[in-house]
Design goal:
Elements lengths: L4 H10 L7 E4 L2 H11 L4 E5 L12 E4 L2 H11 L3 E2 L9 E2 L3 E5 L3 E12 L4 E7 L6 H7 L4 E5 L8 H10 L4 H20 L2 E12 L4 E3 L3 E4 L8 H4 L9 H8 L3 E4 L4 E5 L2 H13 L6 E4 L6 H12 L6 E8 L4 H14 L6 E7 L2 H10 L4 E4 L2 H12 L1
Parallel strand pairs: 14-16, 16-17, 17-18
Antiparallel strand pairs: 1-6, 2-3, 2-6, 4-5, 7-8, 7-10, 8-9, 10-11, 10-12, 13-15
Bound molecules: guanosine-5'-diphosphate (GDP) and manganese (II) ion.
Guanosine-5'-diphosphate binds next to strand 2, strand 3, strand 7 and strand 10.
């Protein structure tokens, strides 16, 4: 789960990360009032969407009066903002964050993320902010410092000092930098983050060190431990199909292809997606209906698959282990009828009572193809949508 910049800043402030004062707003008038309430000559109006690259896309504007702030708000609120991370349709801006403006002397990059290779969080820092970190990693990898965080002991003081040195911070600024880095790491660990990124971290002309932007992502599987974080969820920012799937306890992830997949078991679902691609197709989703999926779940899954306009065909690949193949076949038949299925459907069943399951499918009167192997199933669905 991701949260908005202003929410991340509110959380990080509790861990001692310095941020500017700001006010989240939902209307043009609120934005005007926020400028006045901040009482600063320079403020920044920032579109709150779960995507980066807002600055270049016109979603971050410096303003010097309440009227100017309102004008900016008028141009942003309720409209889609297209950045290089949103896709061409963009994201509708529903919240603006009005923040006291900073006099930037220097921009840096700082992030904590989970590194599976070293089985621990790592802190990543670069003295060159503003540029995209991916670009820096590709062309100038030596500019990026990496420090593994001990999973129990946390970040060691010497590591924070080394990171500050790499960032070119000295004296009081190094002390402030170490405190900021320490706070970010503690927030990451205590809140079960998957990512905590500050881009840019800045030094102001007055010599302050602070977080000018903040992005945080959380491990969904740990959210039950953090009610206060879970409450920050913004369903507007999530794929409606994924939100719907969650209600029915289905693991669903939307992808960009056109073959809808319904599979039981995460491993089998991944294998199915791989084989579809090997046969020249593109999966529209990852969907694991679980080992004990019932008829209702199969129907819900079908509805979600079909609500995706891109889906031109469906591949069902189910192994009847806990569930018997005839039960699954009944579920598929009921779902296909209930949803008035109008795209090609290929079903591959294997496991307990497979013969009976196949017979039910063949006798269903539905226009569907069956397959004995995964290869055959993938070939059939790819051919069917051509
Ligand atoms: P992003 O483009 O979505 O990553 O949004 P950021 O919050 O990182 O802002 C983009 C850029 O806007 C920053 O890199 C800064 O250059 C600029 N910016 C943001 N806030 C301020 C500010 O308070 N003062 C000044 N001068 N520039 C700012
Ligand atoms: Mn940024």
């Amino acid at each position: 789960m991701n949260i908005h910049e202003y929410q991340a800043k509110q959380l990080l402030a509790k861990f001692g990360v310095p941020v500017s004062k700001g006010i989240p707003c939902k209307t043009v008038d609120e934005v005007g009032k926020a400028y006045t309430d901040l009482g600063v000559p320079l403020a920044v109006v920032k579109a709150q969407i779960h995507a980066g690259g807002r600055g270049k896309a016109g979603g971050v504007k410096l303003v010097r009066s309440a009227d100017e702030a309102k004008k900016v708000a008028q141009n942003l609120l309720g409209k889609p903002l297209v950045t290089h991370q949103t896709g061409p349709q963009g994201r509708i801006v529903k919240t603006l964050y009005v923040e006291a403006g900073s006099d930037i002397a220097r921009e840096m990059y700082l992030a904590v993320l989970m590194d599976r290779a070293v089985q621990a969080p790592v802190v990543i820092a670069a003295a060159e902010g503003g540029v995209e970190i991916e670009e820096l990693a590709a062309h100038k990898p030596q500019a990026i410092a990496r420090h593994r965080v001990h999973p129990v002991k946390g970040l060691m003081p010497f590591q924070a000092r080394a990171l500050c040195k790499h960032l070119g911070l000295v004296g009081e600024q190094a002390k402030a930098g170490a405190k900021l880095i320490g706070g970010l790491v503690r927030a990451f660990m205590e809140l079960d983050c998957s990512l905590a990124e500050i881009n840019p971290m800045i030094v102001t002309k007055q010599g302050e060190v602070k977080a000018l932007d903040a992005k945080m992502g959380f491990d969904d599987n740990a959210l039950f431990r953090h009610k206060e974080v879970a409450e920050l969820r913004d369903l507007n920012e999530e794929d409606p199909k994924e939100v719907e799937a969650k209600k029915f306890d289905l693991s669903y992830i939307a992808l960009s292809g056109n073959i809808g997949c319904m599979v039981n078991g995460a491993g089998l679902a991944m294998a199915t997606m791989d084989v579809i691609q090997q046969k020249g197709g593109m999966p529209a989703n990852f969907l694991d209906v679980g080992g004990g999926a019932n008829k209702e779940q199969v129907t819900d899954a079908f509805r979600i698959l079909l609500s995706d306009q891109n889906v031109k065909g469906i591949l069902v690949n189910i192994f009847g282990g806990i569930m018997k193949c005839d039960t699954i076949a009944e579920g598929v038949i009921a779902a296909a009828k209930e949803t008035h299925l109008s795209v090609p459907l290929v079903v591959r069943l294997e496991g307990t009572n497979v013969e009976l399951g196949r017979k039910l499918l063949q006798q269903s009167g539905l226009d569907l193809a069956t397959a004995a192997t995964l290869d055959e199933a993938a070939e059939k669905i790819v051919a069917a949508i051509r």
